[in-house]
Design brief:
elongated; 4 helices; 127 residues; mainly alpha
Amino acid sequence: MKALSEKILGVTLVVYIALDILLTPLAGFETRPVARVTAVGFAVLALLFVGLAIGLVSLVMLLRRSPRAGTFAIVAAVLYLPAVIAEQTGHFSALSPPAAIERIELLQAAVALVLVGVGFSRRRQRP
């Protein structure tokens, strides 16, 4: 059972990180100018990138079989949620999001919730 939860956590982390990267302008889906991002938008962007870094750390910890990988995954997922809330309430930017960004954000919100669940499951299995 422990090996299965490690695999699920690993796959979920990889999907989470990939979706996080798709939200950046480097992927080409984000077309809004930076000048139209609000102060709240910059704050949640910072949280988004910190969450991405923690997600990467969690993946490395999982590969090294650290029992704390689940905790780091939970933190990474929770740090994403302010970004999607700010975007959906119109506080991220003065412009509405492109359709692709909106879909990716909602998909990533679902993945983040799965990550929280799998992370808690992994924490319960710790020795």
